[in-house]
Amino acid sequence: MEVEQSEEKKIQQDSTDQLILYQKNDNNQGILTKKRKRTKAFKFCKFYYQPQGIDDEPVYIYFLHKIYKNYEQEKYNQYRNYGFTDAGIAKIEYVQLDKIYHTIDLKFDFVSLGVDNFRKLIQIFQKKADRDYFELSNALKEYQLWINQMFKTAAEIFSDKSKFTESYQESIDQAFPEFEQTVKQWANEQLANELYDIELCSIKYNMVRPILKKKIYSKNLILFLGSDLQDIYQKLIDFNLKSYIHNLLNGGENNGKLQLQKAIKIIKWMTQYQKEELFFDDEIITLDGFSIPTQKSLSYYSYNYTSKTISQKRDSHFFYVTKYNFEPHWINLLIQSRQMQKQIECGQAQQIQVKTLNQINKNFEFICQQEYFLEKFNYIQKSLN
Length: 385
What we know:
alpha+beta
């Protein structure tokens, strides 16, 4: 999951320095070029990866928080795209295009939600002569105490076999499709003009653990990343593009120091029972290779399948909402950079004109022209002043 307390002063750099265009590796694209025949409305495709077992690899700790053993830039860069599947804790069962709610959905099958003993990580960070690492080690100590108490309490509650029977678990599992539909409808109403992703979770009483079952990406977010729903869905199911999965799940963020500070905030937020909406600075890498700063917000909600209501109380079904916000000048700079890149690709030297933009840029402008973006970002006018 794709989640942080003390506010860090953001160092502003020249925007053209921070906007990074990554050169794509041809070896990572179109490895499987033969298209499969499709006979159904939805196409499902499984993605399997094996754990690599290297000491320097990041560690996923409980509840799927990725912790790097070294956030220094050179070491960090080696594992920027290290995901659930690389760690051997999950596989992606399928990718789904929801044409009703206009989302891209990833369905997971998790073997583990991450390690729940942080002793080795704490020791690693305590040895580093750095304030942020020291703060991370303290945050992990508090998180260790918190999850130990949570597991103990949950085990005591779920030990009541007269209530938490197999049939009770079956009722929870059977309610998941309704839970998913309710959340999507809620998001359509409450987050209509937002860029967001949602993680759908439920409790497994026999494991005394929650599990992440699905991750949902909104149409607005996909458009911002540089594709439309049908296009990215088609590429995922036809080519098993692991690079696209990395962009959607792991982000491949560029700034190791920023990710260290983010990890501290998220872990502290978890120990406070996710009561308040969490705000933190982050990065996002688009599908066409641009990295831009964003401020994200993270919120917890739950669903009661008996009353069919959404609240922020603890319940058997729950979900996390991550929203993405961008400064106006980054939006303008992204459009300009995409225009420039298009001209480079076409080998043209003349001045860029809006009419020459490719379909991806048209999709991006479409989302920016919505009233919400005009009001929230003041779009190009404000960023040009």
